[in-house]
Write the structure tokens for this entry.
Amino acid sequence: MTLPDGRSRQFPGPITGAELAAAIGPGLAKAAIAVRIDGRPHDLATIIDHDSTIAIITRDMPEGVEILRHDAAHVMAEAVKELYPETQVTFGPATETGFYYDFARETPFTPEDLARIEERMRDIVKRDEPIAREVWERDRAVAFFESVGERYKAEYIGEIPAHEEISLYRQGDFVDLCVGPHLPSTGRLGQAFKLMNVAGAYWRGDPNNAQLQRVYGTAWPNQKELDQHLFRLEEAERRDHRRLGRELDLFHLQEEAVGSVFWHPKGWTLYRAIESYMRRRLEKVGYQEVKTPQLLDRSLWEASGHWENFRENMFIAESRDERVLAVKPMNCPGHVQIFRNRLRSYRELPLRLAEFGSCHRNEPSGALHGIMRVRAFTQDDAHIFCTEDQVTAEAIAFCELLLSIYRDFGFEDVAIKFATRPPVRAGADATWDVAEQNLEAAVKAAGLAYTLNPGEGAFYGPKLEFVLRDALGRDWQCGTLQLDFVMPERLGAFYIGEDGARHRPVMLHRAILGSFERFIGILIEHYAGNFPLWLAPVQAVVASITDEAAAYADEVAGELAAAGLRVIADTGNEKIGYKVREHSLAKIPVIIAVGRREAEQRGVSLRRLGSPAQEALALTDAVAKLNAEAAPPG
RNA sequence: GCCGGCUUAGCUCAGCGGUAGAGCAACCGCCUUGUAAGCGGUAGGUCGUGUGUUCGAUCCACACAGCCGGCACCA
């Protein structure tokens, strides 16, 4: 047996994973929950009867935690079957932070049911029931599950490929179809789990199927990690952009404009700070800003293919002469109109048209979420018209721009996904071959690592999806780069080449922030509302300590404002401690206190959000210093 | 859109078949203040909307809307 450290051990005959772990050491035997044999995970009870590469999987390894969570799902299913025998079990996998199990049941589970189920799960863990794997003959397994009324399980067996084993796992009186591996016994799960909530979920993810009851839980190797996870959830709640949006007076939402944001002065200041930053970054690298109509005739959407693919999600309007118009759900057809409005020469390529494009999409009501998923939003959209030869250079330049901009917003960790042709699409397969090859070559040329996201491309082309990781470790897909050979053809875009003939341009659809609304939501949560100085809606407050200093406070605020800072004066009749608290809660980055002393010396006392330290400065120095600090990056 | 839950003052939340309460915020006054809550007072609600049951509904039932958690969707 070859072990992970490269050493090998000899055994006289076949041995189980558990015995192997025990042979290595008692500590390992205790922590062991499964064994990896020649790269594949198995139960500890698996008999190893040939020379193999072996690794013991312990409960603190990522692979081990996944098994633990999968077992938690099984224990939950056992608990549910004991408490509610009429319930059918379906699927119950591990997730990122826990597990779920989908149950088929007439009456939905209530929160009280969850408490009962969780209690019973703890009993089952205490019972420490052995978990045993059995391989069954296919027909017998189907007959068995049908006989016990588990129709979903029986149906699923029929879809397991013929060459695969049908394995069942038995714990106590509960038997479940499962590939495993699993723990040796229910006691090994431990008690560091918790049921979280119930939700509806379609059988096999298909809305045409029955809706099942999905019970979510979280599970960890030990209580400490469970507690940490629950604390992270609380932290996420504290940072929730809907909560901070209200507390910081950034925006609100209301029934009369579902899915649209009412931006308040502070929120709009933040929005404009981001917009002007983006505008400057784009101009520097050769984009030209445009603005295209909100309403465009139906015929254009038919030509682009959007009418066919997204009709249900478009807002439709009618003009008085009975033309049918759609409120634009995206900007590309508009940009193509600008491109094809006159003859274009190859000398103009690459032509980069950018728009802070205000779009409307009639999203299903259940999809809406704060300002992250809305019906009215603005994209930092642009379309690059270029030749096939220019694709790689444009793609590399775009990736560099995107990563640099993400860094400026405090996102260092960015993953890339490569999304290939979807099942329903426009354009010939040969066109897709070329597009996918080009995009793959481009991302490789940019020297960036990516993972494949098969079948997730846009209907007109493959795409790169840029996923950033926030301060809480959550992933958000924001940027995109899409390579499109289809739209230029459908909308009749061409340019005159060096040879004097007409050629089709390639179109790159690209966005960095995605939507302003969503990106601002992400920023709020990433920074927990503590924006860096250049983004803070109010950058500084000048608070007077006594009435005597009020006039001077106004003067200081005036000087800072004249230097271009966003500043307010607080000359109200409150103690300085009260003012510091109020403005700290409002997350204003700089609080400047001025009393009689400062007024006499023309100085300020400066304090940063989150720190009790005070800094005494001359007014002129403070203005220069803050002004320099508040300069946007890039 | 689907499943489930929720909806009481600006916010956070009590409450109950006999038409409502707290804290914070707001407003007014006193205090003239030195770095995360000084003190006192005042005002504030068609209990999401509609229909029904009832002598009487914020409370019970039904419908609708919005929101929340998921699912599905995301050009």
User: Anything to note?
Assistant: DSSP finds 20 helices and 32 strands in chain A. Chain A has a mean pLDDT of 95. The longest strand of chain A covers residues 376-386.
